[in-house]
């Protein structure tokens, strides 16, 4: 878990423009991992927050399919905030980064592409545990 907020990347998802509407396709090497799980967040009440965890091994890409939301990233030392509001742009989150999602617009839909199936043991859900884990890893180096 030696990743930092500097490792977060915005990736462009190919967009095919057409007078009838646009289409974006995720295939082959659009994202840098084999997707094993897809889920999406929607009907998020005003003022609600999502996320509030880090993954030990799993990587994810977040995409605002509709509307917008902000993602706050933390690595125990630095913070970074990214607004997602384009359906042809994804935010690649490597393992070991804390994330919180907030400020969802009305009708926002957040698509998540994950490198692994759900595994509760891969989640760190308490921020203090996360900071301690990051510090332990730094000491081992």
List keywords for this structure.
141 residues; mainly beta; Jelly Rolls; 5-stranded antiparallel β-sheet
CATH class: Mainly Beta
Largest sheet entry: 5 strands, antiparallel
The unreliable regions are: none
Order of helices and strands: EEEEEEEEEEEEH
CATH superfamily: Jelly Rolls
Number of strands: 12
Strand content: 35-45%
Q: Label the overall shape.
A: globular
**Mean pLDDT, all residues:** 94
What's the arrangement of strands in the largest beta sheet?
Answer: 1-9-6-11-4
In the CATH hierarchy, the third-tier topology is known as Jelly Rolls
Helix share of residues? Answer: under 10%
Using the 3D structure, state the CATH architecture.
Sandwich
> Helical segment tally?
1
Instruction: Tell me the distance between the termini.
Output: 11 Å
Q: How many domains?
A: 1
Tell me which oligomeric state these chains represent.
single chain
Write the layout of secondary structure elements.
Blueprint: E1 9-12, E2 15-16, E3 23-24, E4 37-41, E5 50-55, E6 60-66, E7 69-74, E8 79-84, E9 89-93, E10 98-102, E11 109-114, E12 123-124, H1 127-140
Antiparallel strand pairs: 1-9, 2-3, 4-11, 5-10, 5-12, 6-9, 6-11, 7-8, 7-10
Structure, briefly:
With 141 residues, the chain is mainly beta.
């Amino acid at each position: 878990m030696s990743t930092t907020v500097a490792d977060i990347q915005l990736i462009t998802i190919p967009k095919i423009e057409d007078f009838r509407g646009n289409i974006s396709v995720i295939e082959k090497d659009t994202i840098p991992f084999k997707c094993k799980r897809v889920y999406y967040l929607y009907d998020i009440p005003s003022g609600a927050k999502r996320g509030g965890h880090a993954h030990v091994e799993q990587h994810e890409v977040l995409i605002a399919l509709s509307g917008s939301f902000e993602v706050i990233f933390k690595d125990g030392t630095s913070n970074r905030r990214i607004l997602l509001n384009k359906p042809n742009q994804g935010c690649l989150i490597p393992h070991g980064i804390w994330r919180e999602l907030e400020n969802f617009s009305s009708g926002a839909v957040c698509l998540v592409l994950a490198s692994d199936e759900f595994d509760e043991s891969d989640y760190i859900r308490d921020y203090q545990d996360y900071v301690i884990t990051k510090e332990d890893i730094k000491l081992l180096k």
